[in-house]
Amino acid sequence: MDPEQLPVAEKRLLNAPVETLSWSGLTVKVKDGKTGQPKTLVDNVEGIMQAGECCAVMGPSGCGKTTFLNVLAQRPIKAAHVSGQIFVNGAEVPSNVFRHVTSFAQDHDIFISALNVRETLHFASRLAGIPRGDEAETRVDTLLEAFGLVGLRTRRVGGGISHGQKRRLTVAKQLVTGPGILFLDEPTSGLDSVASCHVVSHLRQLAKRTGLIVVCSIHQPSTSTFSLFDKLLLLSAGKTHYFGPINRVVDYYASIGVTIPERANPADFLLELVNTDFAQNEAAVPERERVAELASLWGISALRQQNAGVIASARVTPELAWDAGSKPSSPGRLAVLTHRTFIKSYRDGLAYTLRLAMYTALGLLAGTIWLQMDRDQNSIQLLINALLVSCAFMSFMAVTYVPAFIEDYRQFRLDRCNGLYGAGSFLLSNFVVGMPYQFLFSSAFSVLFYWLGGCRASAGAFFTWISWLFLNLIAAEGVVILSVAIIPNFVGALVITSLLNVIAFATAGTLVPPSQLNVFYKYGFYYWNSQGYVFRGMMATQFDGATYSCGAGCHCRYPSLPDQCHISGETILDQYGIKMADQGQNVGIVVAIILGYRVAAWALLRMRD
């Protein structure tokens, strides 16, 4: 069909002129955990797809379907040696171009749970560079209708839709970005036969109208669903048993002496034919040999030779001019991500609302424990303890941000693989949205604790106190983000965050003076410990210019002022090595530490690309 005759909502699907997708010699090897020997997961697989075609990748469990799909989609596979070539329009293309013209849907659903169904598609569309307006809204509405999600459009993904509905939303989300090639890993998992057929039918119709290439792994499709595909790639133990048109499957197997019953589901028959999962004992040796022979027969078949010729001819096709389509600018991406993150922030109770309640309760608790401290020497150590607890516990409680950020991280990994945005935009949007909340947390804690505890009654000291706590919380959240970047799962990130906070608390120079810290802790942690600088800043807000009475009998526990029964706050600061002239420098150091955490997290995320 002429692109100009397409509906407006579908024209954007032609944002890249993909005519062919071909692959040859794709092989994936990993080291066997038991024997230590190389183990082949995908063995010399080849094939070619034309624009508008849909291919089903089938095979028994563990045959290499998902591994093959990940390699074909150029997604990284850990601890694997990958060889072979992948061509788009007969040429190898740079990874950034490949990411732009392709989209990948995993076998498990990844969403931001606080967004509703329509918002999920809307933000995916905007991040893909589709301008806001009637075209974008029409496309979203078309996909909602095509996948039976119209009645769910205002429901939140996290609690309002079923697994099967999430599967449909996953496919729709990849389509809304307008790819030229779509990879789907088990798109019908969790769907009944009717829903599966409807989803595949829509994919087929869309592919025919727009030239979209669809490659998806699928497990045990019904006869009606199976017949909707144009091509089949049948794998067993990583080896190809068939690649070609669906309507030639019966003839091919008849040519090698295998008859597919007329009334049987071809998909079920083929899966049973190449399945060796239940043929592991000695009596099953003939069955395994039969499956190996089927793979060998494919290797010498005329259809396989024909495919090889088509693949070779496609490689000499002149490379088409790439029209990468419009992508939002970096400020544009940042604006969209910030908007999405902001919506999540006020809807996700665990991310910020519950934490606000927690910090407020902590302020009330601390304020009532250190209730109205007197301005005498008996309160000096109490006040120091209160400052230490305020600084350290506020940092410790930032660990509650781990679950919310892990959800953001998983969404980022998926979007990054699909070329929507990078680590810099992701972390910057998170930082921008988080700052107002960190200030709110600091203020909520301070309003209760500061005045209940009887801290220094000065507006300047109060707002300086809040500023130090604000920096402390930003640094603590940076620790959380770095921990997730190091180990991106809940338990691992929790352990790393807790460990770093404990080390920071112990090496801040308050429990053990810096002069007594060993070389490892002094140079490894003390000098870049934000808690230590924040504690010293908070000490300065309370003791600079303050005096404390020595009480009856003038028995001063600290050096007193000349001819007075009062202790100068500067005396306390001197004992802790705190100089007022250093406070501006300390602010700069804390800001540098905050940036250091974010830059380190950015570097780790980039390393995983």
UniProtKB/TrEMBL annotation:
Keywords: ATP-binding, Hydrolase, Membrane, Nucleotide-binding, Transmembrane, Transmembrane helix, Transport
Gene Ontology CC entries for this record: membrane
Gene3D superfamilies from the UniProt entry: P-loop containing nucleotide triphosphate hydrolases
Cited InterPro entries: AAA+_ATPase, ABC2_TM, ABC_transporter-like_ATP-bd, ABC_transporter-like_CS, ABCG_dom, P-loop_NTPase, Plant_ABCG
Annotated ABC transporter domain residues: 21-262
Protein name: P-loop containing nucleoside triphosphate hydrolase protein
Superkingdom per UniProt: Eukaryota
Localisation per UniProt entry: Membrane
Similarity comment text for this entry: Belongs to the ABC transporter superfamily. ABCG family. Eye pigment precursor importer (TC 3.A.1.204) subfamily.
Lineage: Eukaryota, Fungi, Dikarya, Ascomycota, Pezizomycotina
Main location: membrane
Keyword Zinc: no
Entry keyword annotation includes Cell membrane: no
GO MF term set: ABC-type transporter activity; ATP binding; ATP hydrolysis activity
Residue intervals passing through the bilayer: 350-371, 383-406, 426-453, 465-487, 493-512, 587-605
Bilayer topology term: Multi-pass membrane protein
